[in-house]
Amino acid sequence: MIGLTRFLQSPERTLRERHERVSGYLPERANIGHVIAVVTDSSSCLPEDLAARMGIAVIPQQVRIGDDLEDERAASTPALFTAMRNGLHVQSSAPSAITFHRVYQHLQAAGATGILSVHISGRMSATVRAAETGAIGIGVPVQVVDSNVCGMSLGYLALAAGQAALMGGTLDQALNAVIKHSRATRQVTYVDSLDYLRRGGTIGATEAMLGDALSIRPLLTFFKGQVRTLQRVRGDKALDQVVKTMSRQAGRQLVDLAVEYGDNLDGAEELADRLKYQIPYVNQLIITRTSAVIGSHTGPGSLAVTVSPR
Fold first, then answer.
1. C-alpha span between 55 and 159 (Å, rounded)
2. CA separation for the pair 286, 53 (Å, rounded)
3. The domain 2-60+95-182 is classified under which CATH number: 3.90.190.20, 3.40.50.300, 3.40.50.10170, 3.10.180.10?
4. CA-wise closest residue to 59 among 41, 37, 39
5. Are the CB atoms for 176 and 208 separated by under 8 Å?
6. Which of 57, 100, 122, 216 makes the best surface tag, with the fewest CB within 10 Å?
């Protein structure tokens, strides 16, 4: 805590406060008690208040709905799902390298001596490449991390880095916290319609047609940075299998949990209750709306569960 106290008392605090917001990407009340700054992107699904409390800068992904391209904060998830149901073309894209460069510049000006930037899998998005390009010319070390995941699996990695930074940790210590959590964090996603996966190219038209006809649903997970089918189950048994799989993953460890939802909050809360009943040692449970970027592929009724050991 010595490093934390020293930074809070430094004259750079005033400078940090003047640079708390960079085009709206930084938290309004960023926690300034650390020298290492942590950056992630909106595919992390971090609730805004939690990101602000941990001092994590969240850069929005871009979403195109029809002919309109907006950042994710402007493209609300409910509006996205309405557009998808109406058959409008929906596509996501990474933030620009210029956006990253400006955020890094402001964090440096605010007193950061190092920046850890943790992002959605490079096999799913160009975000990591944009972050690496944006780091060129920044006067402090910038470590860009390809998380190989997205959603709250990414969110919990960013939170681990943020916690290390708040404790006065070095850039290497924050990076090691991310690596440690990435080894054990797991996520499973349930989708209630295969049509959106078909539109995004995740599955073929024949598989989607047969799956819907037979009421078979894939449970999705991450493998080497890509979305893969963990198993296929009947629709009425799918959430039972999610609970069973994630309970087994948690075991008797102390874990953080997250449930992401599209437009089915009631389903998310019910699933969270079932998980809490089955998993004995839960440190934190977050129920959060899925990122519009993720929702554009998984669809409105999707539910995802993340287990992250402490």
1. 10
2. 15
3. 3.40.50.10170
4. 41
5. no
6. 216
